[in-house]
Inverse folding.
């Protein structure tokens, strides 16, 4: 079975591509390399193109049986400053991909969504029944595409799974691939960088939240666990009985355990043996005190749970960071 992985030269997409290959799938990566990296797609067939370009998509889609869609703009702050980019990339271009998928006769689609569709929830842990009320254009653009998938599923019998991630972290245990962002905004690599002599100080946004140590709590999930969930989701779609064809399923992907910013810093210090240099700043507008998943539905339906601990997340990220910096 062949899978088109859009955004497969990016962080999560590249890990999913490798996990698919390990499970015996043929993988074609489709990426315009605007934020992805050619080195993360090494060893795979890479089709360079934009998801809004039907002419580029058509021959690639003719060769596959399912689509995993990761290609998206994904910076919350940037989405507030430049919503046009987000609604174009994550909405209009993604819709063109969806239409091309449908026209190619493909009826299996896995979507990389986000917990940002929930906005600021009233309570945690967050279940799939929590109202979807995004508070930034990034979350709104992802919700738009979720709504499109639901509508297409009903109208066109397109079977889909919408996977709502919490905080993706860590790197492949092989050390071959890991997190590459420009700019980097994720806490784990920033905390690790702040332990090094040349690294920037870690900026902490707020220490007055109603949490045990005053800093925000988030649910960190190893990127390899995320990748494995995508394969499970694909296998779920493969096994759907005829009467279930056209279902659109939404699942939270998280560990179900929250860690504060301070706890992540402590994990980094434990792994490296050096202090995380940091400076305290005010809260960022719209940052909720805690975002933690209830992953029970993913366990029930896919038989999936996050296996890797925060310590494993940090150690794998550090291994990748060292290897990546030495190869520059």
């Amino acid at each position: 079975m062949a899978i088109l992985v859009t955004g497969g030269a990016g962080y999560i997409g590249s890990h999913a591509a490798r996990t698919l290959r390990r499970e015996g799938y043929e993988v074609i990566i489709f990426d315009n390399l605007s934020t992805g990296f050619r080195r993360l797609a090494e060893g795979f067939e890479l089709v360079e193109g934009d998801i809004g370009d039907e002419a580029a998509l058509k021959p690639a889609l003719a060769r596959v049986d399912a689509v995993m869609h990761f290609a998206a703009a994904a910076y919350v702050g940037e989405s507030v400053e430049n919503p046009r980019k987000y609604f174009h990339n994550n909405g209009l271009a993604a819709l063109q991909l969806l239409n091309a998928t449908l026209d190619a006769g493909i009826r299996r689609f896995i979507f990389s969504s986000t917990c940002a569709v929930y906005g600021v929830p009233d309570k945690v842990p967050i279940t799939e029944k929590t109202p979807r009320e995004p508070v930034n254009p990034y979350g709104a653009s992802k919700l738009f595409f979720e709504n499109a998938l639901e509508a297409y599923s009903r109208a066109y019998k397109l079977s889909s799974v919408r996977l709502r991630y919490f905080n993706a972290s860590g790197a492949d245990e092989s050390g071959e691939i890991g997190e590459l962002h420009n700019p980097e905004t994720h806490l784990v690599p920033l905390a690790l960088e702040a332990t090094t002599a040349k690294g920037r100080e870690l900026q902490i946004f707020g220490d007055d939240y109603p949490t045990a140590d005053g800093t925000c709590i988030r649910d960190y999930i190893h990127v390899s666990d995320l990748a494995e969930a995508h394969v499970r989701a694909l296998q779920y779609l493969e096994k759907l009985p005829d009467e279930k064809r056209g279902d659109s399923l939404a699942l939270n992907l998280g560990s179900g355990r929250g860690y504060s910013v301070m706890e992540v810093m402590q994990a980094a210090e434990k792994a490296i043996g050096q202090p995380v240099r940091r400076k305290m700043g005010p809260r960022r507008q719209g940052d909720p005190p805690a975002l933690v998943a209830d992953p029970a539905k993913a366990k029930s339906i896919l038989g999936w749970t996050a296996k890797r601990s925060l310590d494993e997340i940090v150690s794998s990220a550090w291994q990748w960071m060292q290897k990546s910096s030495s190869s520059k």
In short: The mean pLDDT is 95. The CA atoms of residues 4 and 67 lie 5 Å apart. The longest helix spans residues 83-103.
